[in-house]
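Predict structure. Chain length: 311.
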Amino acid sequence: MSCPIFQVDKPGLLTSFQDMGRKKHQSKGVVASGAMDTTACQIANLLVGNPKEEACIEIAVQGPSFTVTAKSATIAICGADLSPMINGTPVDMWKTLQVNEGDKLQFGAPRGGVYAYIAVSGGFSVPIHLGSKSFYSKASLGLEIKKGDMLSAESLPSPLPARGLRHEFSYPKEVEVRVIRGPHETHFGTEDFEQFFSQAYQVGQGDRMGYRLQGKVPLSSPTHKGIASDAIPLGGIQVPEDGQPIVLLADRQTTGGYRRIGTVITADLPKLVQVPPGGMIQFKEATLDEAYKALEEQQLFLKHVEIFIQK
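Prediction complete.
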């Protein structure tokens, strides 16, 4: 039976339920959504004893304010440091936290990164649409978090022992991100690829759909009339006519007709999405084998976290 855990005093600016997204529905025109930083979301769940695919509350920029309505509960906050506080006192991240009825969970100024995640032991009680609890506003998929709402947990297990990670997580404003070249290589010249991998790009406008980047030297204008609209992968890098790349993210459109110079490897997406506006991204070319190896290392790290927590 579900149990009310949070009353929403303020929803914040970009607060939503997100899990690992809607799988296998893009062919029907359904946006995948899901957590922007899947690593932080999964670790938050593991810390509180949930399956790592469970939904978290994703917050960004201006965090929400909640009042705890359950007698007691175990939560974890991972990802960007958005100055979390309980009853006005700063609390640690990447560890379990016990909250009690009447406690106020709030957030302050961002100190590093963009997206943070709140997990509750027992998981959030959220309707599942097309196999996911993720919220996508433009299609009214999922449960929106609004002021005055009561957010519930599926269940509230007995309090968990205090546990946390010793691993240091940091979110620098300048990162190197690996990219697999293509698929539209014939739509770019040799100088385009040299320029793309040599210059640093500044993060401009960005949201869950994608990050617009700004380089000092734009890539060339299209030499072809265009490409046939095709499926857009997570991390696909479109280059429109202005020559400035756009990295497509969780709420990306399902198809698009802009040429793509490359795709960010899956393992590097979590650090890319945590770069704030004004931060810098340097792209580095990678092979498919390197991308698989990096993903295996990422999954192995999560497995080690899971084993450590279960001890």
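Summary: The chain has a mean pLDDT of 93.
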